[in-house]
Amino acid sequence: MDIRSGALENPKLRTKKNSKPQLHGGTMSNAPNNPEGNTGQVTQSATDHSGIIYLGLDLGTSQSALATSSGLKLNVASMVGWPKDFIAFNVVKKPIVYGDECIKYRTSLDVCYPLEKGVIKYRGKDPKGKDDKEAKAAVELLKHLLALVERQGDQKIYAVVGSPARSTREDKQAIIDAAEGLVDSVMVVSEPFLVAYGLGMLGNTIVVDLGAGTLDICRMPGTIPEEADQKTLFVAGNEIDKKFDELLKENNPGIHTNLSLVRKIKEEYGFVADGPEKIELGFYVNGKLATIDVAKELREACSIVVPEILDNVRELIVSFDPEFMGAISKNIILGGGGSGIRGLASVIESSLAEDLGTVVVTIVDDPLFSGALGGLKLAQELPVQEWEDL
Q1: Exposure winner among 93, 160, 326, 352, fewest CB in 10 A?
Q2: CB under 8 Å to 255, separation ≥6 — which residues?
C-alpha cells in the first residue's frame, strides 16, 4: 500500500506485532456480523479462520466503540479512574474503574481522559499527563476493551483502529505503542475513511465525521484519499459543550452547571434548526431550584460547527474534478455523535445549495459504531497472509 496522508499508510510503518440516531454510553451487544442499517455489510473473509479475531476500534475522545468478527459490538466512555484513597476504594470496591462508572463515582476517583482531540495525550518521551496514572490511562482503556472481546486460547487479534483524518505520524505511533502486547497486529487508519469503507461508498463521496474532539472531513475520490482530500478541525462536540456552558453562565448569573451536565442536555436536545421554541429545564441558581429556558443558548452553541463544516465541505467539492462535482454534492455522509444534532443535515444542504445547486446529506444509521464497523470490514478483507507478513 502507498503511504498516503493517514487514510491507509504502509502497514509496516504503522503496525506492531506482539513478540437520526441516539447517543449511547457503556453498552454492549452480541450483534450479527451483518447488522441491520446502512452501516456497511460486515462479512467473514474467505481467508479468515477461527484462530483469529478481527477487530475494528474507534478510539474516541468521549466514547470508544468496538466491533469484532465474533459478532460483538460494545462502546465505553473513554475514561479511566483510580480511587483517591482507601475510603474511595471502599466506595467503588475496585482498584480501577472504566467508562460510565467513572461518572457515577467521579467524586471518589482520580479520573483520566486518555484521549484529547481524538488522539492519545501521553507520549512516552514527551508525557502530556500530570502523573503516572495519566500515562497509563490509554493502555488501561485498551486492556479493558480487549478483555471484553474474550479471546479464546491462542486466538490472534488483528485490529484496525481509527484516528483523526490528519493525524500525525506521532499520533498514530502513540496508538501502536499503547496496543503493544495487547493485540497481534494493528493498523491505524483515518476515521472518516473507515466510515466510508464500512458503507461501501468509496467514490464521489464526502464524509463529515463530527465527534467530541475533532471534526473530520474526508473526500473519497475512488482511491485511497490523499492529504488534500482530508481535513481535521478542532471545533467539535467538546467545544459545543464549552460554549453552551459559557452562554448559560453568561445569561444566568449564579447558575450551577458543569460540562458533564451540559453535555447530557446537548445529547438529548441539541439542534441548529427545526428545534423547539423552548427547552425548559431545572437548575440551581444561587442555591435555589429554578426553571430556565435553554433553547437559545443551546442552538447558538450547536451552531458553532456549521461554518467550519460549510467552508471545508465547499472547498473539497469545488476543488474536485468538475465533471464529478454534481455527483459528490449529492453524496455527503454525516456521521459521528454530532450527527444527532437536529437540523444539522438540512442546514448543510440548504446553505451549500445556494452556491452549488442540489446538495444531499445523509445521516449514517449507526453513528456510534460506523467507524468501528468500517474498521472491522477492512480488517476482514485484508488477506490473512498480509496480516501475518506485518
Answers
A1: 93
A2: 248, 249, 283, 284, 285, 292
